[in-house]
TrEMBL record:
GO CC terms of this entry: mitochondrial matrix
Protein's name according to its UniProt entry: ornithine carbamoyltransferase
EC number(s) per entry: 2.1.3.3
Cell compartments where the protein resides: Mitochondrion matrix
UniProt keyword list: Amino-acid biosynthesis, Arginine biosynthesis, Membrane, Mitochondrion, Transferase, Transit peptide, Transmembrane, Transmembrane helix, Urea cycle
NCBIfam families recorded: orni_carb_tr, PRK00779.1
Gene3D superfamilies per record: Aspartate/ornithine carbamoyltransferase (3.40.50.1370)
Enzyme class name: transferase
């Protein structure tokens, strides 16, 4: 009868729902048992294995789903505070961290060089100890990576690298989530870096191989990535069976690549070198011609702010450009990272495919 069919369908729906809830909880618990992130600092992706990086991205995607798509209030950081030290100006790092921490119920405290000048008005050791008693976590955007290492050594709370001269790991988390969302998985992709051998590239070099992503790097002579980072990246590539190439020809790097990436050619503090740098990087602008030799599904990334000499408008504003999704994901990934470091949160969505 109709009633029996209705009862059967209702029981089936309830069974499927309970299975999904149990399965997600069980998978989430198993993942948490194997990944230990709470209380750890985040200075470089070199210190994090594949499962740990994947877990951070999983939590990030979960928060994005709950807060953005389901309009939930998720006060996981209620009662907590973050000290944000900025030696360098920023749009995305400041906005993503400040709004993200507030959205999770916490209190962000923004500190400029006028408020806190590391190692000048007060020693870095004393600053680390003072902030350890006033905040739950520190994000520092600094010139020298050694400043972060000094803070981390003397602080009793976690330190997050908001950018240094050597690494920019929180940018890479956003890039990886953006690519995972677009392609559905990361393993087997080839990323072509076309530009300066800088801190963003260094962070790609410390993470991509662990996730099964190949990397081709094209830089002008004299602008190669750091030699120690290169040596470590070569070891990772060999360990995980990925391809790593260093070239000087942008077109050769782009050939058959899925993702074309560049960044500023003149970083903060390099303004006096601008004229020489623009000359040395002639021919490195990413255009549709560059993309013509890439894989059919090629996309473009840039961590911003962007200058026209690095990528032309046709590429930057095209459907192949993921730069604005990438910029938004800075928020969800820094939120995911902070939740991982400060809580034992279990994501509610199924694990992402990598």
């Amino acid at each position: 009868s109709f009633l029996n069919v209705f009862i059967y369908l209702a029981q089936l729906i309830i069974t499927i729902y309970l299975y999904r809830v149990f399965h997600v909880h069980r998978v989430g618990k198993a993942a948490l048992d194997s990944v230990k992130l709470k209380g750890r600092s985040f200075l470089t992706l070199k210190d994090f294995n594949a499962e740990e990086i994947k877990h951070i991205l999983w939590v990030s995607a979960d928060l994005k789903n709950r807060i953005k798509h389901r309009s939930e209030y998720v006060p996981l950081l209620q009662g907590k505070s973050i000290a944000m030290i900025f030696e360098k100006r920023s749009t995305r790092t400041r906005m993503s961290t400040e709004t993200g921490f507030s959205l999770l119920g916490g209190h962000p405290c923004f500190l400029t060089p006028q408020d806190i000048h590391l190692g000048v008005n007060e020693s870095t050791t004393d600053t680390a100890r003072v902030l350890s008693g006033l905040a739950d976590i520190v994000l520092a955007r600094v010139y020298s990576h050694s400043s972060l290492e000094h803070l981390d050594k003397d602080a009793s709370i976690p330190i997050i690298n908001g950018l240094s001269d050597l690494y920019h790991p929180i940018q890479i988390l956003a890039d990886l989530l953006t690519l995972q969302e677009h392609y559905g998985s990361l393993k087997g992709l080839t990323l072509a870096w076309i530009g300066d051998g800088n801190n963003v590239l260094h962070s790609f070099m410390m993470s991509l191989a662990k996730l099964g992503v190949n990397l081709k790097v094209a830089t002008p002579k004299g602008y190669e990535p750091d030699a120690n980072v290169t040596q470590e990246a070569q070891l990772l590539s060999k360990q995980f069976g990925t391809k790593l190439q260093f070239l000087t020809d942008p077109m050769e790097a782009a050939r058959d690549s899925n993702v074309l990436v560049t960044d500023t050619w003149v970083s903060m503090g390099q303004e006096e070198e601008k004229k020489r740098r623009l000359k040395d990087f002639h021919g490195y602008q990413i255009t549709m011609q560059t993309g013509s030799v890439a894989a059919p599904d090629w996309t473009f990334l840039h961590c911003l702010p962007r200058k026209a000499e690095e990528v032309d408008d046709e590429v930057f504003y095209s459907p192949r450009s993921l730069v604005f999704a990438e910029a938004e994901n800075r928020k969800w990934t820094i939120m995911g990272l902070m939740v991982c470091i400060l809580t034992d949160y279990t994501p509610q969505i199924p694990k992402l495919k990598f």
